[in-house]
TrEMBL record, chain A:
PANTHER family: UPF0699 TRANSMEMBRANE PROTEIN YDBS, UPF0699 TRANSMEMBRANE PROTEIN YDBT. The chain crosses the membrane at residues 37-54, 66-85. It comes from the Bacteria. The lineage of its organism: Bacteria, Pseudomonadati, Bacteroidota, Flavobacteriia, Flavobacteriales. Keywords: Membrane, Transmembrane, Transmembrane helix. Residues 88-152 form the YdbS-like PH domain. This is YdbS-like PH domain-containing protein.
Length: 172, 501
């Protein structure tokens, strides 16, 4: 019987911290900015709408206070999303895909390639213009273990897509 | 139906028409129930609306019934299935023809179910499930029992033998009933359940009823009566207190009863049968279910018990499979198990599991701080609400709330632990219940490390481990520890070439 059972030194295992995570494309910042701005203008529009709908004195007198409050929240949110952009990083190893994101709640997700069910590359209208695409990686798990890496260079995404597809097919 | 070979396309038993008819009728009534009531009442009250008379309504109803019957017959005629090579084929559809093919190896579950109607006409329905979403489920609604059992056996036999060594016939070892629940244990199980849920359910139900009939009650001029009664003398106050106490006791009793009846209906005659490789569960009063558990299809095991249940030796084992919908998930619970039976079963379902394997470790005390914070938020909401609704006197609820919150925090921390061994991850949690989550490392689908900006300076992180059926969290451990586990789990998954299903 050819069976060995070597002891595993946990410190010798491939370490997730040694992986150099790549930042996503800088152009994606534009998409984030545009999306955010569109969102904020919607909200501000809604606030103005309220001004015409609610005729109560209490609201009318304090309208500018409310307005400024909303703007401050929007600005804070915008700054956070810009800062969080730097946290969006990814890496592909021989056996898994890693994606890190989030400023307030930072998370690093790793999905082993052998567990991937299918890969999808999707491109919105805006992303096509900037030469970007989103790589969606689906596992059999509940939504918790699915990955969606946004803002990859189109070629890069295609390359990863091909690599994973080849690996997944090779396994079966 | 005498043919017991599934190589040729066959229909289900003719009784299937009745089942399909009944099923369609029920869905139809459910959809148009409100319309029926509104329409029917107004017609019978006014004798006619426009030119519609009650006779016409009855005729229309009969027409609808006949249509449903015809649809049922057509559905029955166009429903054929057979087994060819290693695939299960099913052809359905009256106008749009559907042809479904399921490879045996992808079948996750075969249930045999019997609802009330099916029990009367003595047929069973067979449900075939894959790990896909809800749409890929197949249900054959009427087969006689021997045929159903044979079909199940045929579907399973090939499916299991492809993944393992050529297996000796199942018949070699007589399947034996491993566990059969007694009414007494079921009663205890129902009694010792977490009654908060039943209580909430009944409370919302009665509250809903009350708000529905509020106007009606007003019409009865109840308020005047009440006002008459609330001329404060001591006797009426006493009476008021007594009524309140009676109401509370009544609700508590009802929720107890509710839990017990529910437990009985769902788990009536619960039986665990042990086969060579699989474990079969049979249970149910109105809806009889029989399902087989194949070890390779199991993603997580969850064991629940609580203080009282522990005293009676009652444990619940729930088996989680990939992508099973919530309603079905409940069928995978085995209640009222003794400790030894539980251990035996766990070992049968995931081999070589040993409770004492691996080192037991606990989350950082930071956990308590987070729970305390949660409780603080919850408490301030409660205080705010009671202040707003009942005024300043209501602050006394804090005397009840604060000790409860403290107990909550204490128990949540005390019961939290995790254990990582060579092949398994075990995570304990719970406050009122004691929950133990077991999963096999090679079934992990993804690992996630989570750290909030506030945890960063303290070097604390949480680890989320996802399998195909659910995600479990190891909360608030030191980041170094989390990374070590992270690396270890990934190494385990990626270095072994084992399938998750």
């Amino acid at each position: 019987m050819n069976f060995t059972n070597p002891q595993i030194q946990t410190e010798d295992l491939p370490n997730i911290e040694d992986v150099v995570l790549k930042p996503i494309s800088k152009s994606y910042l534009k998409i984030i900015t545009l999306n955010r701005l569109a969102f904020y203008s919607l909200i501000l529009g809604a606030v103005f709408g309220l001004k015409y709908l609610i005729k109560e004195d209490g609201f009318q007198d304090n309208f500018w206070l409310v307005f400024i409050g909303v703007i401050v929240i929007c600005i804070a949110n915008f700054i956070i999303s810009i800062l969080a952009f730097k946290k969006r990083k990814y890496a592909v190893r021989g056996y898994d895909v890693i994606y890190a994101k989030g400023l307030i709640i930072h998370s690093i997700i790793t999905v082993p390639i052998s567990r991937i069910q299918h890969v999808e590359e999707s491109r919105s209208w805006l992303a096509r213009h900037l030469g970007l695409s989103t790589l969606k990686i689906f596992t059999a798990g509940e939504a918790g273990s699915d990955l969606s890496i946004k803002g990859l260079q189109h070629l890069e995404a295609k390359g990863i897509n091909d690599f994973i597809s080849a690996k997944v097919n090779g396994n079966n | 139906m005498e043919i017991t070979d599934f190589s040729q396309p066959i229909r289900q038993s003719t009784k299937g028409i009745i089942v399909i008819f009944a099923f369609n009728l029920v869905t139809f009534i459910k959809k148009f129930f409100v319309l029926f009531i509104a329409f029917g009442v107004s017609i019978f009250r006014n004798k006619s609306i426009g030119n519609i008379t009650p006779t016409m309504v009855v005729l229309a109803l009969i027409a609808v019934l006949i249509t449903i019957l015809i649809i049922a017959i057509l559905k029955y005629l166009n429903f054929k299935f057979h087994i060819h090579n290693d695939d299960f084929h099913l052809a359905t559809g009256i106008i749009n023809k559907d042809n479904t093919i399921i490879p045996k190896s992808k079948i996750q579950n075969v249930y045999i179910k019997q609802n009330f109607l099916q029990q009367i006409i003595n047929v069973v329905s067979v449900k075939i499930e894959t790990a896909g979403d809800k749409k890929s489920e197949i249900e054959i609604s009427a087969l006689d029992k021997p045929t159903a059992l044979l079909l199940k056996k045929k579907l399973f036999n090939r499916a299991t033998s492809t993944s393992g060594e050529p297996e000796p016939k199942d018949a070699l070892k007589e399947p034996e009933v491993f566990f059969k629940v007694t009414p007494k244990r079921l009663f205890l199980e129902g009694l010792s359940q977490n009654h908060f849920k039943s209580f909430l359910l009944i409370f919302t139900f009665s509250f809903g009823l009350y708000s529905e009939f509020k106007d009606f009650l007003k019409e009865l001029e109840l308020e005047k009566h009440v006002e008459g009664m609330v001329e404060l003398d001591e006797a009426t106050i006493l009476r008021l207190i007594i009524t309140n106490v009676i109401i509370v006791v009544g609700v508590v009793l009802i929720s107890f009863l509710f839990s017990i009846v529910k437990t009985f209906i769902i788990n009536f005659n619960l039986e665990v049968v042990e086969h060579q490789k699989t474990v079969e569960i049979n249970k149910g009063l109105f809806n009889k279910v029989s399902l087989s558990l194949t070890p390779s299809r199991i993603q997580n095991l969850v064991i629940t018990t609580n203080r009282i249940k522990q005293y009676f030796g009652l444990h619940t084992l729930s088996v989680k499979q990939a992508m099973v919908n919530v309603k079905q998930q409940k069928n995978f619970n085995i209640v009222a198990l003794e400790k030894e039976q539980l251990n035996y079963l766990v070992n049968k379902l995931i081999s070589n599991y040993n409770e004492n394997q691996g080192e037991l470790a606990k989350p950082k005390p930071y956990y308590m701080r987070i729970s305390a914070l949660e409780m603080l938020v919850f408490g301030s909401v409660i205080n705010g609400l009671s202040l707003a609704i009942f005024g300043i006197e209501m602050l006394w609820i804090n005397t009840v709330f604060i000790p409860l919150a403290a107990l909550y925090i204490y128990f949540a921390y005390k019961k939290a632990y995790y254990k990582i061994s060579e092949n398994f991850v075990t995570i304990g949690s719970g406050v009122i219940d004691t929950t133990t989550n077991i999963l096999e490392i090679h079934k992990i689908q993804g690992v996630k490390l989570k750290q909030t900006i506030f945890q960063k300076p303290r070097d604390i992180a949480s680890l989320v481990i996802s399998t195909a059926s659910k995600s479990v969290t190891i909360p608030y451990i030191s980041k170094q520890e989390a990374l070590t586990i992270y690396n270890f789990l990934l190494y385990k998954v990626e270095s072994q070439d084992r399938d998750w299903m």
